[in-house]
Amino acid sequence: MTAFARTERLGSWGRTASFEGAVARPRFAGDLPAVFSDPERPTTILAHGLGRSYGDSCLNPGGGMVSMRGLDRILQLDPAARVLRAQAGMTIEEALSILTPKGLFLPVLPGTRYVTLGGAVANDVHGKNHTTHGSFGRWVRRIGLVRSDRGAMQVSPDDPDGLFAATVGGMGLTGLIAWVEIALTQVQSTDLIVEDVAFDTFDEYYELMVNHGDSDYRVAWIDCTRPGYGIFTHARHAPIGETQPHPRTKAFAVPFDMPGFLLNGATLALFNRAYRGLKRRRHGPRRAHYSTFHFPLDGVRDWNRLYGERGFRQYQCVIPDAGGREAIWEMLRVISKAGDGSFLAVVKQFGRLPQPGLMSFPREGVTLALDFRNRGQRTLDLLHTLDEIVLSAGGRLYPAKDGRVSANHFQYMYPNWRELEARRDPAIQSSFWKRVTRA
Amino acid sequence: MTAPPARRVVILGAQSAIAEACARRFAAESASLVIVGRDLGRLNEIANDLAARGAAQVHAAALDLAAEQRPAERFLEWGHRIGGVTHVLIAFGTLGDQTRMESDVDAARLALETNFTAAALWALAAADLFERQRSGVLVAIGSVAGDRGRRSNYVYGAAKAGLGVLMQGIAHRLHHAGDARAVLIKPGLVETPMTGHMDVSGRLWARPEEIAAIIHRAGAKGGPVVYAPARWRWIMLAIRALPAFVMHHTRL
Fold first, then answer.
1. Tens of pLDDT, residues B106-150
2. Can you list the domains of chain A with their CATH numbers?
3. The CATH number of the domain where B238 resides is what?
4. Distance separating alpha carbons of residues A357 and A354, to the nearest angstrom
5. Does the active-site annotation cover B156?
6. Who's near A335: CB < 8 A, 6+ residues apart?
7. By the CB < 8 Å criterion, does A102 face chain B?
8. Which of A1, A6, A104 to mutate to test the interface with B (most CBs of B within 10 A)?
């Protein structure tokens, strides 16, 4: 019997790309090697977690997909040594609900808890503490891989042939990630002490970042419609309090695709002002559960439907500190001139800790994340202009959020790409990788 | 308030997606578990996870559930391992290929024996145990397919219907045995490896975790027949009420 019996449709979060074809759903570790030897396996396959990548890096049209969600077991949890080894399909949400009652925590959290551990490694995700903790991959001690040519194997950071570094941030191309072993941190409380500070110029943002350099987490939201205005938020783990996982209550779900036109220049300006006004009214630090601080959007299920049935484009870049300020300013100017804008423009700092992956996105500098309602060619043109600003400032884009960067630009941003291509499992491919490695 | 006494649960057919999701709920409450299935490697994979999720003890037992001759002895043996048995979940079964079973006697026999005969013998042994203890909850997974014969899966449905009547009888019997109870769970369409070949895109499909939550709740309280999710009670009421001349024109 074949594991690829079922035809399914799988999407990505931006809803601009999708996959329809054979999907295997392995449930046990022993099923993974069988996926490769399956008589009806499509020529190439790709692992799929929760489909929270925004573009086409988690899709493989023309080939097959392997949903990893059935492999979500803990293999080993050692609270004393603070190590978790779990199958790749376990989500950060599940991991946190098991870890937090024991006072354990994941050292790096992305902006949503609906990400699998395998996906977190494959995209080397980052959080709001990159300057002190680096990216997710920096905490990974071993990875279990299953390859079509080498079978089941494990790799660690001291791996001489570079397969570990290629796998961290390797977009799932170096083999099926079967399990991940990660070092944990300890927390006294699952609450954070959070403070919002409004700023009116971009210089103030930099000042705040520096002044609060000792906070555990730092992030800023900026008003795209009025460059320079924004809210800086910093947080630290509460020194004492309860250790409670996030509540299991069902979040409000967006029930249908909103008409895209509802997101226009006027509503955007209105939203941005209201949001900033609301935040400004709160003075001083407050206590908040980690889930409301780290995962603000997880409170609304299917929030991607707010952008209408045509979906949206995410855009996240990092720009080196030298010239970063000017480049971001220029990007915001171009965006507001184009009459487009983003509801949630987020700025964070990346530090100088060494990147664990060959293709890790984070590097020292400032990172800006934006989203744009998909308006077809018009949006693509705008993003292309932004690419040029990023490139000339020596920056690069985040593959997990991309679905359209040109092969030329990509190869310039990630000169290491050939080293990943050399270590790619020949039976694994993605739509993103095919696109950006085109000659 | 004192904590409820720890649950000691035996799960038959523990490799199924629904059973594993149930086991995780019990493990999170520090239950002691015996998980029984066919493949020791897979059971150990599940057992490690359950222990890490908080189970007080997990014992994996590889066994051909359909061939076991002495179910009562097995319950005693497992009871010794985990300090008694408070819950038994019968979760094994096989869907079978309806078309093949219409012409292949062995295939039909296998489905009938697994889904009815074996499940019934385990249920009877558990009923004996709980009657003597005057406590314990026996939960068996039936199916809405047992509510009305339909051409797409009536062999499976017939076995599950038989199991349903048996569980009904056991529930009646245990009513007079202290706190002991028996519950039949009737899941509707569930997205599991068992239904892996079907199109699961419709709104009626439930995830194994949803069914597990209902089974877990049924272990604590509730009536002897529980549809999972509850909407299936009304759907099946309607389907049972369909006159034959209408039913025979459908492709259900």
1. 999 999 999 999 999 999 999 999 999 999 999 999 999 999 999
2. 6-67 (3.30.43.10), 74-187 (3.30.465.10), 191-413 (3.30.70.2520)
3. 3.40.50.720
4. 9
5. yes
6. A224, A341, A342, A370, A382, A386
7. no
8. A6
